[in-house]
Amino acid sequence: MNQERLSRLLEEVAAGTLSSEAALEQLRGLPFEDMGFAKIDFHRSLRKGYPETIFCQGKTPEQVAAIALRMAEAGETVLGTRCGPDMFQTVHDTVPRAVYHAAARAFTVMAEEGPLSQRYVAVVCAGTSDIPVAEEAAVTCLAMGVRVERVYDVGVAGIHRLLEQRERISGAVAAVVCAGMEGALPSVVAGLTSSLVIAVPTSVGYGASFNGIAALLGMLNSCATGLTVVNIDNGFGAAVAACTILKLVEQTTG
Amino acid sequence: MNQERLSRLLEEVAAGTLSSEAALEQLRGLPFEDMGFAKIDFHRSLRKGYPETIFCQGKTPEQVAAIALRMAEAGETVLGTRCGPDMFQTVHDTVPRAVYHAAARAFTVMAEEGPLSQRYVAVVCAGTSDIPVAEEAAVTCLAMGVRVERVYDVGVAGIHRLLEQRERISGAVAAVVCAGMEGALPSVVAGLTSSLVIAVPTSVGYGASFNGIAALLGMLNSCATGLTVVNIDNGFGAAVAACTILKLVEQTTG
Amino acid sequence: MNQERLSRLLEEVAAGTLSSEAALEQLRGLPFEDMGFAKIDFHRSLRKGYPETIFCQGKTPEQVAAIALRMAEAGETVLGTRCGPDMFQTVHDTVPRAVYHAAARAFTVMAEEGPLSQRYVAVVCAGTSDIPVAEEAAVTCLAMGVRVERVYDVGVAGIHRLLEQRERISGAVAAVVCAGMEGALPSVVAGLTSSLVIAVPTSVGYGASFNGIAALLGMLNSCATGLTVVNIDNGFGAAVAACTILKLVEQTTG
Amino acid sequence: MNQERLSRLLEEVAAGTLSSEAALEQLRGLPFEDMGFAKIDFHRSLRKGYPETIFCQGKTPEQVAAIALRMAEAGETVLGTRCGPDMFQTVHDTVPRAVYHAAARAFTVMAEEGPLSQRYVAVVCAGTSDIPVAEEAAVTCLAMGVRVERVYDVGVAGIHRLLEQRERISGAVAAVVCAGMEGALPSVVAGLTSSLVIAVPTSVGYGASFNGIAALLGMLNSCATGLTVVNIDNGFGAAVAACTILKLVEQTTG
Amino acid sequence: MNQERLSRLLEEVAAGTLSSEAALEQLRGLPFEDMGFAKIDFHRSLRKGYPETIFCQGKTPEQVAAIALRMAEAGETVLGTRCGPDMFQTVHDTVPRAVYHAAARAFTVMAEEGPLSQRYVAVVCAGTSDIPVAEEAAVTCLAMGVRVERVYDVGVAGIHRLLEQRERISGAVAAVVCAGMEGALPSVVAGLTSSLVIAVPTSVGYGASFNGIAALLGMLNSCATGLTVVNIDNGFGAAVAACTILKLVEQTTG
Amino acid sequence: MNQERLSRLLEEVAAGTLSSEAALEQLRGLPFEDMGFAKIDFHRSLRKGYPETIFCQGKTPEQVAAIALRMAEAGETVLGTRCGPDMFQTVHDTVPRAVYHAAARAFTVMAEEGPLSQRYVAVVCAGTSDIPVAEEAAVTCLAMGVRVERVYDVGVAGIHRLLEQRERISGAVAAVVCAGMEGALPSVVAGLTSSLVIAVPTSVGYGASFNGIAALLGMLNSCATGLTVVNIDNGFGAAVAACTILKLVEQTTG
Amino acid sequence: MNQERLSRLLEEVAAGTLSSEAALEQLRGLPFEDMGFAKIDFHRSLRKGYPETIFCQGKTPEQVAAIALRMAEAGETVLGTRCGPDMFQTVHDTVPRAVYHAAARAFTVMAEEGPLSQRYVAVVCAGTSDIPVAEEAAVTCLAMGVRVERVYDVGVAGIHRLLEQRERISGAVAAVVCAGMEGALPSVVAGLTSSLVIAVPTSVGYGASFNGIAALLGMLNSCATGLTVVNIDNGFGAAVAACTILKLVEQTTG
Amino acid sequence: MNQERLSRLLEEVAAGTLSSEAALEQLRGLPFEDMGFAKIDFHRSLRKGYPETIFCQGKTPEQVAAIALRMAEAGETVLGTRCGPDMFQTVHDTVPRAVYHAAARAFTVMAEEGPLSQRYVAVVCAGTSDIPVAEEAAVTCLAMGVRVERVYDVGVAGIHRLLEQRERISGAVAAVVCAGMEGALPSVVAGLTSSLVIAVPTSVGYGASFNGIAALLGMLNSCATGLTVVNIDNGFGAAVAACTILKLVEQTTG
After folding, report:
1. Contact F228 E226 (CB under 8 A)
2. Residues F200-251 pLDDT 10s
3. SS3 F105
4. Residues near A204 by beta carbon (within 8 Å), at least 6 away in sequence
5. Mutate to test the interface with B, among C244, C246, C250, C251 (most CBs of B within 10 A)
6. pLDDT tens by residue, chain A, 254 residues
7. How far apart are CA H31 and CA C107, in angstroms?
8. Interior CA angle at H181 toward H180 and H186, to 5°?
9. Of G159, G187, G210, which has the smallest distance from its Cβ to A184's Cβ?
């Protein structure tokens, strides 16, 4: 029916009974969203440089490898998260350029290795057990062409270690802060820096940590205002948020 | 940019350098979703007879009255759910045609009172405490022009009362079955009828009923296959689902 | 005691002291439910074509194989869900006709392969990780003689892929929509089609997805009215509900 | 810099231009936490323009009024959140300059009304019931000197209303998106804009919405990467995060 | 259809072409459950003496009064639980014979006051806050004609008070033990008596008692084997279970 | 100090300055519980015939075998629950008389095989997946010398199978009813028998069954009054409760 | 029976056929626990100075007043917690000596006002909203004769305020630290003092604070080892624990 | 004291006996956090004897071994908790002095084996399944130089076993009491001793024990005042708390 209406309109234009301006106006008058979702693709192309990401968990190695191959052949940077070493073997057999980041349980296929951003994102974590999540964040930043400063093993129990790293954190555009157990680290970091802190609860802990729920709740209820939170163990998502801010700043300043 | 492209295309049609058929083809070729969400509106207009609904809870009486007035003036049937008697007073002062359904805590402003559907939806509930939810379902059906058979107070504790109503339930296109506590009634009803049972857990109960969670879980885990479930106390949503099926049947059969 | 009463009544009829009409009337007067549950079996036989289903999880391979054999010998179509490849091996050794559907982790033993229904059910899923649940739904439909259109990998992140499949979904009598994580897909699909959407939360996700609870809650609270929900990962149950509607429509229209 | 200051001070002592007592006094006069948490105060003074905030809930009207008075007298901009009209009356009696924002259940005492920022934050909400949370965000932005664009009542059920506002949202440095029920709006908005989306689950809903838990989980599990989340109903915190980004951009670009 | 079959069968008996014995046999051959649910009513009449119960919460005073009147006129003993004093006023106006038990928030209309049972049920509770639940149990027993021994305020903190009552508890056929907070009392009582202990968690407590969940979980996980549990605050249900055992013993022994 | 007091008292008696009656009175006056917990052992010895039970889960095979040996040597009947076949191997090597019950995952070492009780306990379960829990209950009864009637695979989906077993269930002193998923079976059984129903939720199910929580909540909220509940999968505890009632009846009647 | 045995023993002592030493030995040989629970009372009397406590919530004003009167007349110090001002009015009418502590929602009736302990307990809280809980702890200490240092409003957001109070906290035998929201304060305090920190989660907060659950989980998962936790809002319990340690120290050192 | 030091330093600068450069260097050389968190390091050095602890779970064997080696070489006592036998093998290969405590799943590297404390901590547990947690507590005490009395397998079901150990528990400075299931043991122990009871819920149990949640809630809601609680299975933390009290007492008394 929509099509009939369009058809008729075009015929009137062809017949000269409707000016192209009037037709355009009428088209504009069509349910607005006709033009709507088209935009999506345009602004997608704008954010070029964002890697295509494969969440590997729950997929077969063959599926992951096939998707990675297709994307890599299309010239995209590919990032595969939650990818164990066995699964990566299959990926590597299919896409020999793929590089594995064991600590992050992630792999990348870089489209082109341009220079990293001037500004950087700080990736902070409380203990060695939180490193896999922090590394997922760090690798994601790098795959997005963003420089990273890693500040690891600075839990609140030995606060002086954190204080020694204060400068490096404060210099970042945004800080991705990963912590399990009671998840207090992001609150403390937020007190040390004026940039945005993105908190990542990790599933590190036992008993009443409930696989990260305690940390998640702690972060959501933080008395440090301005803290925002992502899903448990979601280093990837936090990194994308941080890089979005960094790119906004770099775009604005040229 | 999209608009420029459209503009150019229309000018070509006007100039005769592009036939209206070719233009139509090109329009079809535009990012597919251009036409996409337009459909929404069309099929919306197709399901005329669906009431515009106001979920009153959390709104001020004035907001509700204003929305109801606007919709009623547009010739729509209006249904207001979760509306207490005090709030309705304000609505009534603004829209005198509005009718209150105390048991359902709902009001309606009917656009036109055509005949009800031939087929009907059965609205079943376990105890007198479940009646507000059941009535919300019943009033919703009526606002959609659908006939309702009410089968109330047929809890599984006195199963013969349910069995006496078996015919009326089986004759329905779909049954909306409301129950609190352990929520076993929908399972039993599903054993008595071949039509679809839509289960509505109610917040009736105490202690470990957790305001309807026990009933919700019971229904989700029902061993009676083919049962589907809506939110706790959501008589409205279940009724819309049931009426959707009824209208599909009536449309198909002319 | 009941039997004595029946006995006496029959003797009176035999003796001619009670007419068969009066006896029938008296029988009717017996506690109503005497006749009650009898209906169950009759309407069961009406819905012939429904497969006998074995929920394999928690049973031994031997138990599953034995049940499948008994049912298959009785001429029933058999559907086994949640059946791993190892377990199926045992089933296959016992019932060589059994066919395995690896993606669905299900097997079927078809009683007779009649033509599929004319109308169809759409089975939609968000990502590749949801496919096992979607396939369980699809295989269930097929085992019930219902035609299926599979619309896979159309998550809301890349909404244009979904829009391209709009026609196929809208053409369905009902849509079974499977999604994990935040479970938003069924809401979006419900905006694109006028037929009933049956939402299946899947356990896909991590962290605060809590094995499908986030998706389940999202679907139960959907602002798209008319959505109904089944248990987490319950592709089978959703398919039975969808087929129930389809068969209702086909029965009604002859 | 701190060290320079120390250096200079010590040199003056060495030079005899400063007595050791006076030097000690000056050292004492430095923010006490000087060598350790020193940065805190400095960066606090850097983020001048940030309001002093009173979370009123759980305090007595007298406590709130006293704190507001003390802060206002110190020349600070004061923001009071979760403040009912009765409580505000007490505040107003004490600080007559205080202004109440009924829809936000907040009050402000502005230190000086300079011009608002050039760039803006978009505050988006799904339904009228979400407005109190959205307004808390908007009032917070204004108290921080940040321009706001309000985009209200654009729930995903009527997606064309959202699409009409696309430009205004995309033009923002960051979008604070408030939604209750299944909380899908932030995911959809994130698909329409390249700036950061900060999601605020609201306690709007009933039954299995569990006072905002469903929305919170939906947002944490969003398939739209880069989304970050704050506590349920925490419009204030989301606004602070958004303004932090905006000020970072404005600072960087001069 | 069933009826046709019955009709034909009776006509054959009337015609003498079928003996009443053969007819009886055929009737027996009908789907077995034909005779099935009839039993329910018989055994219901067997347990005469059981009160008809009205769960008042969630009903209007008028509904409660009307139901109570109908039952009382039918000569039944009536028990109304969860009935506040205001609601009872309406009941009393309608059924002047109704007696209110304030501590139990319950009322009774006794059909006939026969002698109480010889054996008794012990109703035990931990603290004065648990008394309403304990009294609901006690009043229920009395309404069922069962003698009660009340053992109140014997919490485990002052265990000697419990020990002093040891004999009275041990002499009971069954003990209904009500406790909130950590719910340890039933475990201790179970160590003191050889009769069955029915544990009733109460919603007494605060914080992590979660309205009785802590007590409920404590009782379900009791290391005292043989303990069984009912819903939070369900004094009524526990009393019915205890009286069922008592009546079984009294029936068996004549 | 207590001892000093006792010592002095005894010396006074010896010295004749205190009569033995007065001394007894004084002893009685000592904190009552002095005599208190002594009783425990006496009534323990009364319930001879109860097996000594080992909850094997979480113990090493060696620990289980050692405990079993010590008890068996003391002439006790031993019951080991939650014992896998591998663990039993170790037990059997140590106590060759031990008998394994594979379906129950339990073993017994019978002290003496006397005749079973005349009355019996009915052990009922819904599906084949519930059998391990039901068998744990059955084996426990047998270890306690109590006769059992097993009524298995009578889920509410095929209610006629349950009705066919009505007589056997009604004849029991108590019924242990095991069910997973929505846990509706105990409610239905409670409608068919006048004896006490002890409900055992099982962890059978998936998704929103939450390992038996749905069944547990369903049973706690059952509208069938008089139902009592034990922990998830606790067939042992339910059996002990049932046997306690049976032994009470048999003791009373001689 | 036990008594007979005692009786006989005493008679033998009186008769001189048994020495008092031998009798004592035999008494020791009685089931050991005979002497067991006696200890309870003795050590109770040892900890004289502990107040008798009434948890007022859930009791009627009359019950509270009556209990308070009975205890006060027995010369005990009485502490009533969770007592609103209206309830206290009734208490005061009955026990005029009773003193109300409004901020703590508690009252005391002091037996005798001796000097407070030399050492002290620090009661620390994060914000003004936590004061009621902190005051309950402080009043409890005072009722136990223990000196208190209050350190209030030292939340981690303004950490210098806490640091200024470092000395006073470190000087305490134990610190009761109350905090709501994410509950991080006890962890930080534990880093500043070598004495035991007893953490009290408060129900202060909103949204995902879940009435103190977030704070409770944060404290249970604290990376500051040696922290122990009490129930949400349980200032009383924490104070008793702290005073127990203080009294142990004072006892040991004379 | 710190100030004195500063004072002296400044005077030396004024006196010319110290160059300003050297003074600056000295200031730098002070523990950096000097004025702020300075205390931390000082009191750390004060609590010498506390082991450096490695929470091994979630770390690789290599990481654990490397950390252990570094600490051991620094002359510290090292305690590794949650360390399986395989992981220990790697530790042992690296630090041959390391000793494994299999029952505790922990290892220690003792700096110097001085005499244990005179006073002791009682470590109590309910059943053999709780021993791993109890042993973690015991080994922690020993690593801290604190004497331990183990009181195992004294569950409340056989309360006389507990009573027999009464003296040993009462003699302790503090008791660490570990229990799973309903977690009632700490409450009972608290009734037997006047010293502080630190309750450790264990994850022992099944079904509604929810891996220790039931025990945790039971302990948090204990009616035995003065009980404090640590995380599920956190034997280590409870031991540190108990040793903190013991050292406080020993320090005070010299």
Report:
1. no
2. 999 988 999 999 999 999 999 988 888 999 999 999 999 999 999 999 998 8
3. coil
4. A127, A129, A130, A179, A180, A181, A212, A215, H58
5. C244
6. 344 556 677 777 777 787 776 766 565 444 333 322 222 333 333 344 577 889 898 888 998 999 999 888 888 899 999 999 999 999 999 999 999 999 999 999 998 767 899 999 999 998 888 999 999 999 999 999 999 999 998 877 666 778 788 889 989 999 999 999 989 899 888 877 878 999 999 998 899 999 999 999 999 998 888 899 999 999 999 999 999 999 999 887 75
7. 70
8. 55
9. G187
Give the whole-angstrom CA distance, residue H123 versus residue H198. Answer: 10
pLDDT along chain D (254 residues), means of 10: 58 77 56 30 42 86 92 89 96 96 95 86 92 96 95 76 85 95 89 87 92 94 89 96 92 72
Higher pLDDT, E32 or G48: G48
Q: Is H163 on the interface with F (CB under 8 A)?
A: yes
Q: What are phi and psi of B118, to 5 degrees?
A: -75, -50
The distance from CA F10 to its chain's CA centroid, rounded to whole angstroms, is 44
- Tell me the nearest-neighbour CA distance from A116 into chain D, angstroms: 19
* Contacting H residues, span 168-187, partner chain G, CB-CB under 8 Å: 170, 173
Token look-up 């909380």 returns D183
- Strand order through the sheet with E52-55: E52-55, E78-81, E106-109, E99-101
Give the integer Cα–Cα distance in Å for C153 and C161: 8
CA angle D30, D33, D38 (to 5 degrees): 80
- Interface mutation target, options H121, H248, H250, H253, chain G, most CBs of G under 10 Å: H248
Give contacts of E 187-246 with G, CB under 8 A.
Answer: 204, 206-209
The span from the CA of C193 to the CA of C55, in Å, is 32
Nearest of B181, A12, E163 to residue F38 by alpha carbon: E163
Which residues of chain H have a CB within 8 Å of the CB of E208?
Answer: 217, 220-221
- Quick check: B159 contacting E, CB < 8 Å? yes
Considering only the beta carbons, identify the residue of F11, F23, F41 that sits closest to G31: F41
Which of G2, G13, G16 has the CB atom closest to F35's CB atom? G2
Q: Is the pLDDT of residue H206 over 70?
A: yes
Task: Name the closest residue on chain E to residue F222, using Cα atoms.
Answer: E231
DSSP F18: S
Using alpha carbons only, how large is chain F's radius of gyration in Å?
A: 23
- Could you tell me if F173 and F195 are in contact, meaning their C-beta atoms sit under 8 angstroms apart? yes
Mean model confidence pLDDT for chain D: 83
Instruction: Quote the tokens at residue A162.
Output: 């954190």
CA neighbor of D202 nearest in space, from D235, D229, D179, D184: D179
Q: What is the pTM of this model?
A: 0.83
pLDDT band (50, 70, 90) for residue E101: very high
ipTM of the complex: 0.80
Q: Do chains C and H touch (3 or more CB pairs under 8 A)?
A: no
Q: How long, in residues, is chain E? A: 254
Which of residues A163 and F70 earns the better pLDDT score? F70
Unique residue bearing structure tokens 């009383």: G236
| Token pair listed for B20 | 């209206």
Beta-strand relationship, E78-81 and F78-81: unpaired
pLDDT band at G58 (very low <50, low <70, confident <90, very high): confident
